[in-house]
Design goal:
Length: about 260
């Protein structure tokens, strides 16, 4: 089967600066104190994803999930190692990025679709489906400046989720929609997986990962700590489904963030 994502020894470092003002920085330097630290947000990560696989990515806050997703989506390049992908990548990352508040929902729909690589003809073909999905009919010709944050999110999701892609990546963006909208997104993501599109899904919700994914990657402090069966990975994380609020083992999870199991 074709390999769609190939990540080899990928490392991405960030600089953590300890001082905010120039004065603080100068004082720290004069006193011979450390002014910054370099750390690996993604640390020597290697894995590959085959066509049609649905991969979940879990880990504690700050473990490097979003950074890894940015490497896969091409938003960032690794400092060392390599990240190769095949085909068109789309997904729910930074949905609605590039919205112009002075333009109407309709104009922003076309603008956003263009940013995501859709031609005008493709957007016109999918227009009704996108509007229907966003459920913003009455407000389509209202300036986006007057949209609630939920309405903006719906429009952004509706466009992103309708882009034809070979690899679909989603970064827990679904957590902001209301319950019926989350349900709609879940159904659409199921359809995307069923249609054979490769899925890369970042979530803190074990239920959602169980429902959608056939394999799980777990990041710990930037390193790939687990790669395998979803249930085994969730057990590795020591998540207890029956106890939403308790902090256990490697982290705290609730079953109702994003696409929780209860949907
Ligand atoms: N642009 C950046 N510059 C500096 N540090 C960054 C940058 N982006 C992320 N980091 C740091 O890298 C680490 C990993 O962040 P990342 O957002 O990838 O984690 P995450 O696993 O997605 O977390 P969460 O579950 O909270 O979304 C964190 O310590 C974060 O502060």
């Amino acid at each position: 089967m074709t390999t769609m994502i190939k990540v080899d020894n990928a490392t991405k470092s960030f600089t953590l600066s300890y001082h905010r003002s120039l004065k603080q920085l100068a004082l720290a330097k004069a006193r011979g104190r450390k002014t910054h630290d370099v750390f690996n947000a993604v640390d020597d990560v290697t894995f590959s994803v085959k066509e049609g696989e649905a991969i979940g990515l879990m880990g504690l806050n700050g473990s490097g999930k979003s950074t890894l997703l940015k490497l896969v989506s091409g938003v960032m390049r690794p400092d060392s190692g390599s990240v190769l992908t095949r085909g068109r990548i789309a997904g729910l990352i930074a949905t609605g990025a590039g919205f112009d508040p002075q333009l109407t929902g309709r104009d922003n729909l076309f603008l956003n679709a263009a940013i995501l690589g859709m031609s005008r003809a493709e957007t016109l073909r999918k227009f009704d489906e996108i509007v229907d999905f966003a459920d913003l009919d009455k407000f389509l010709d209202t300036e986006v400046a007057y949209y609630s944050s939920g309405m903006k999110a719906r429009l952004g999701f509706a466009v992103a989720i309708n882009v034809d892609a070979d690899i679909f990546i989603a970064d827990e963006a679904l957590a902001v929609g209301d319950r019926p909208f989350k349900r709609k997104c879940k159904k659409r993501m199921d359809e995307i997986v069923q249609s054979g599109v490769t899925m890369f899904y970042v979530s803190h919700a074990p239920g959602a990962v169980r429902n959608l994914c056939s394999r799980l990657l777990v990041l710990e402090k930037g390193r790939l700590a687990f790669d395998g069966d979803v249930d085994e990975g969730i057990a590795y994380l020591q998540y207890d489904d029956d106890d939403d609020d308790e902090v256990k083992g490697r982290g705290k999870y609730t079953s109702d963030d994003g696409l929780g199991a209860d949907i």
